[in-house]
Amino acid sequence: MKKFTLMCIAAAVLMTYACSTVPLSGRNRISFVSESEMQTAAAQSYSTLLKAPETKVLNNADAARVKRIGQKIAAAVTKYMNANGYSSQIAGFNWEFNLIDSKEVNAWCMPGGKVAVYSGILPVAKDDAGLATVMGHEIAHAVAQHSSERASKAAVAEGLGGLLGAATGNKSATTQNVISQVYGISAQGFYLLPNSRTQELEADHLGLIFMSMAGYNPSNAVTFWQRMAAASASSQKPAEFFSTHPADATRIAQIQRDLPEAQKYFNSTSGKPVQ
């Protein structure tokens, strides 16, 4: 086990020197997976999806709303990042916003600013401020480079799992199996899943500020997430510990705590605020 301990120390040192800071939250993240490569892959995947026969990209009034709101948030984010020394973290971003015809209540943003909103979320979003809430959240994932961080975390977990297997190679098959199972549960429960929940709450925090910077009242985020919680109330959810997403109550409570900070950005926007 001494060899395994030394390998873990080496991995910890690598993680220390492969950290960067998330704008606004100030959290340190692991980032040794290339963001530019993630963006290239995302752009290809996004293009493939939009051109797929089963994908219906809408070109109607709602699609125009999605583009308008997305562009406002992207402009506000770009202005903030450039003015505060974070321009390198959005280098290579080529924003795209599309509304896809689907009953799925979902939206996402790939690395590099490739955004898709599914029409199924429109009734829950209800208005422009609701759309700004969900789009700000998804854009925050890309700005915070969460995909690169997840890839880095997964690589670390996989690597440490391999090292553990090598270090216990002289143990009995039963012992190796038990250690492997315990490690798998530990990696998911104490490392990978909490990281995902941290990212979700961080995206809520950043997204709240991003929508505020774009002129959308952040107080609307609370009612949006309450509607989201109601819409998913009938579906069976895993306990928060074994979920990649925080519980609805946890999410809403944090947003309520973050509102005073976001309100400052909203109050500083020029022109008539969007309600």
Explain what you see.
- With 275 residues, this protein is mainly α.
- The chain has one domain (33-267).
- It contains nine helices and five strands, in the order αββααβββαααααα.
- The protein has a three-stranded mixed beta sheet with strand order 3-5-4. The chain has a two-stranded antiparallel ribbon with strand order 1-2.
- The longest helix is centred in the C-terminal third of the chain and has 41 residues, at 173-213.
- The protein is globular and about 40 Å long.
- It starts with a helix and ends in an 8-residue tail after the last helix.
Task: Give a concise summary.
The chain has helices at residues 2-17, 35-51, 61-83, 122-125, 128-143, 146-167, 173-213, 220-231, 248-267; strands at 19-21, 28-30, 96-100, 107-110, 114-118.
Characterize the largest beta sheet: strand count, sense, and whether it forms a barrel: 3 strands, mixed
Helix content: 55-70%
Write the element-wise H/E pattern from the N-terminal end onward. Answer: HEEHHEEEHHHHHH
Gyration radius over CA: 21 Å
Structural class: mainly alpha
Number of domains: 1
Note the quaternary state here. Answer: single chain
Beta fraction of the residues?
5-15%
Q: Provide the low-confidence segments as ranges.
A: 1-17, 159-194, 238-242, 270-275
Blueprint of the fold:
Elements: H1 2-17, E1 19-21, E2 28-30, H2 35-51, H3 61-83, E3 96-100, E4 107-110, E5 114-118, H4 122-125, H5 128-143, H6 146-167, H7 173-213, H8 220-231, H9 248-267
Parallel strand pairs: 3-5
Antiparallel strand pairs: 1-2, 4-5
